[in-house]
Amino acid sequence: MAGPALAYFLHRDGYEVTVVERAPDLRDSGYAVDFRGAAFDVLEEMGILSELREHDTRMSGTILIDEEGAEIGRLPAEAFAGELEVPKRELTRILHRITADDVTYVFDDSISALTQHEPGVHGSGVHGSGVTVEFESGATREFDLVFGADGVYSKVRRLAFGPHAEAVRHLGLSGAGFSTANHLGLRRSGMLQHGKDRAIFLLSAGDADRLTVSLSFSTDSPALDRRPRHEQEQAVRAAFAGRGWLVPRLLEAMSEADDFYFSSTCQVHLDRWSSGRVALVGDAGYCAAPTSGMGTSQALIGARTLTRALASAGGDHAAAFAAYEAELRPYVAENQALGQETAATMFGGGGSAPADVHSA
Fold first, then answer.
1. Which residue intervals of the chain are DSSP H helices?
2. Predicted confidence (pLDDT) per residue in 78-132, tens digit
């Protein structure tokens, strides 16, 4: 979300923008994203708030159940859906539509190297200030500024700042997500079974025929994030072995799902969000973890804050990056504290020093 939003604001302010996406086309994956607080001002400024409201999932709440599936309580819709929740594919589609005519999108490619240079550096035949970007496709291009808006395992961050292990902090949770047939008949509602070290969350939102499944469990590191699917499935099966209720059926559906997704609950902590002419936006620079419920809102607010700082600095990128960070850090710190607190409440996690993270 951070990339297209940043592209929108940068183009509006007169920049020529290129967005690089490793997927071969627009991503149609993901389940739902929610918005809270100041993010609504950003959506309004972009002119898409009314359209997004048309896609509101209108969740009615979440039923709390015990290990046998009996209801033991309820949570209001706001607990998971925020003030507004929409299917992620709709937000992706809208952000692409409002930028496609003005921004260059490069799909099915990624960067392989970044080289920053200043006037007078002639090593690669470059005589001005900027960044030489080498692509996996073999192309090489020059840019004035480069922004990493590519998630927790940001390629830009690794190239410009250092290994993932120096930035990514694990909060003690990992899990699989996928969808299956809505055999429970849920309608705009969720169902949560929560134990000491594992949880099952089921919901049906935009598509009444589909059931979104999340199987979470305690882990010591996010190493599984970078492992093959069969190893991830093995870990899920081991974590939920011997459990009754719907668990055997859900585990079977997991192996059949064509939208299987595995991730760990992590945060990104850095001493700085910029390095020369490279800066980070959204999860790449300061992920607050899904347990904060603030990822999408933070990405949008970060994109607008950065572009406002660039406009105010009159072309001085160093001053702009410093102002962007000074303004946004307190907001990010609050969200990261919330993410840690929620993780600790769920499974006794809360994070530790960055460790056990693959650098690939």
1. 2-12, 39-46, 49-53, 78-81, 88-97, 155-160, 229-239, 247-256, 283-286, 295-313, 317-347
2. 766 678 888 888 999 999 999 999 999 999 999 999 999 876 444 444 446 899 9
User: What is the torsional sign of CA 1, 172, 193, 214?
Assistant: positive
State both tokens at 215: 């199987």
- What would the pLDDT profile of 243-291 be if each residue is shown by its tens digit? 888 999 999 999 999 999 999 999 999 999 999 999 999 999 999 998 8
Q: Does the pLDDT of residue 346 top 80, yes or no?
A: no
| Domain locations along the chain | 2-23+95-167+267-347, 58-81+169-265
The 10s digit of each residue's pLDDT in 18-45 is 999 999 998 876 678 889 889 999 999 9
Name every residue whose Cβ is closer than 8 Å to that of residue 50 and which is 6 or more positions away in sequence.
none
Q: Please, what is the end-to-end C-alpha distance for the chain in angstroms?
A: 23
- Crossing angle (nearest 10°) for helices 295-313 and 317-347: 170
Please say whether the beta carbons of 197 and 174 come within 8 A: no
Calculate the dihedral angle through the C-alpha atoms of 200, 32, 266, 42, rounding to the nearest 10 degrees: -150
Q: What is the pLDDT of residues 195-234, one digit of tens each?
A: 888 999 998 877 778 899 999 999 999 999 999 999 999 9
Among 258, 233, 244, smallest CA distance to 200 is for 244
- What residues are paired with 169 via a beta bridge? 267
Topology at the third CATH level for domain 2-23+95-167+267-347: FAD/NAD(P)-binding domain (3.50.50)
Which listed CATH number (2.40.30.20, 3.40.50.10470, 3.40.50.150, 3.30.9.30) goes with 58-81+169-265? 3.30.9.30
